[in-house]
Structures are given as structure tokens and as C-alpha cells.
Amino acid sequence: MNNSEMAVTLFKEGFSCSQAIFSSFSEELNLDKNTALKIADSFSGGMGRMAFTCGTVTGAFMVIGLKYGRTSASDEKAKQKTTELVRKFAEKFKERNKFLNCKELLNCDISTAKGSEYVKKHNLTRKICPKFVADSAEILGEIL
Fold first, then answer.
1. If you write DSSP's letter for every residue of 78-137 in order, what string do you get?
2. CA angle at 15 for the pair 90 and 105, rounded to the nearest 5°
3. Mean pLDDT by 10 residues, the chain (144 residues)
4. Domain definitions of the chain by residue range
5. Contact, 37 vs 23, CB < 8 A?
6. CA–CA gap between residue 135 and residue 123 (Å, rounded)
């Protein structure tokens, strides 16, 4: 099973979008899956269901950081590489989906009671979000 398939499977099992992305890449980057699931949990639904940056995007940013992030404050090369890849990822995700934020991707504000109810009533996270999960994992696979 490749990372994209694994991420979509985890999402369909009930893990959040951010968890699905981050944990599907974590073990190959020497971070155990359970730790990855915990780290990424709060980023779902646009960071704590605030409808900001999609969890698949923040999950991808964490993967990029885990692989290329700096461990020394003076490592400008690593900082530059990480920033470059984050921007490249965001550009490719927007090419496929136009937006980075949950609010625009779902065309609904999940941070409100009305929006949250609308999403549940129309099962939007199960109908729409698997595409974002797959797209994020595919793009990560391309740029890593």
C-alpha cells in the first residue's frame, strides 16, 4: 500500500485528515505512528475545527518539516529547503483544489454550529475530503 492509499484508508477509518497525512509518512521518517497520530490530531478541520488551513495541508507541512527541517538555529540551508518545499506543496495543492482553507474547500464554515451541522447533514467530510487527503499524499510523494 502506498502513502496515498494508506492516508485515505486511515481517513476512512475515522482518523482526521491531518492525522492521515502525517502518520502515513511518519514511520519512513523514523517517527512512530502513534506519536504522529497524537501530534497531528489538533490540526484537523482547519486547525482545531476553526476552518483555517486544511489538515491535509498542515499534515503535509509537518511531513516536510520532519524530513527537511533544521535542528540547528544556524542551518539556513535546511530552513530554505523546508520553506521552498512548503511553498511548492501549497502551490500544487492550490492548482488541484484552488484553496488551502477548509472554509473555502468545503464551501462551508465548520467553525460555526450552523456550518458544522451542514457538514454532518450532507456528510461533506466523507464525500469531499478523501480527495484532499489523496491529493496531499500524492503531492508529497512527488516533491519528497
1. HHHHHHHHHHHHHHHHHHHHS-SBHHHHHTS-TTSHHHHHHHHHTTHHHHTHHHHHHHHH
2. 40
3. 94 96 95 97 93 97 97 97 98 98 94 92 91 97 95
4. 3-143
5. yes
6. 19
